[in-house]
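Dear colleague,

Thank you for sharing your sequence with our group. We've completed the structure prediction you requested, and as agreed, I am returning the results in plain text so they can be pasted directly into your records. Please verify that the sequence below matches your submission; if there's any discrepancy, let me know and we will rerun it promptly.
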Amino acid sequence: MNAAITPERDPGRLAAAGEAHEFRPRTGTMDEWNAAYVRVEDYLRAHRIHNRLHQSRLIQQVLARAAARHEAEPARSPTVLAAEETEAMMDQWFAEVLEVRGQPHERIAVDGRLGLLLSDGPQRWPYAFLDHREVPPEFGAALRAGVIQGGPDMAVSSMVPRPIDLGPIPEVAGETFERIERWPLLRAAVLWLVFAGALAGIFYVTR
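Please find the predicted structure tokens below.
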């Protein structure tokens, strides 16, 4: 079933962005593709891509890629496919700009988003994000400067446990407890003294 992205989020902005063709997927329903459109738009906005013309251009690219996959996988949700294509496009773009091709998704995703945030890229270069044709050199440099660099490799070392030297305190305490154990009356007297001291402390604090 053909579905055209229309009304709700004003996809007519695609034409305003200079896109000559209209997005008409061959599979899926209008509601499904509208939902995918909204999800991608929100995701881009979460990355501070607020320029409406650039948003529309990117959404058009994402949905076109998702629609091509949906023809081969019609049982899958267009929204899920669109989300996957957005992630794939970001990974590829971040890897190229950061010059870290071949890194795992988790590393590229974290480094790329951190660099994007710290460089304030979407505000300073509003049309550069996910643009494979021309990335301003200063944007690439700012993006790479914001990436956390790994520390030195960990080295394995051995630590031998050593006894803690508390001086004569343990010996004196041990002898004292032994005497208390040997003399029940002394033990009772000590307990009563502790109890009386606690009562005196409570009385002093609360009076």
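Summary note from our side: Residues 18 and 53 are 9 Å apart (CA to CA).

Kind regards,
the structure core
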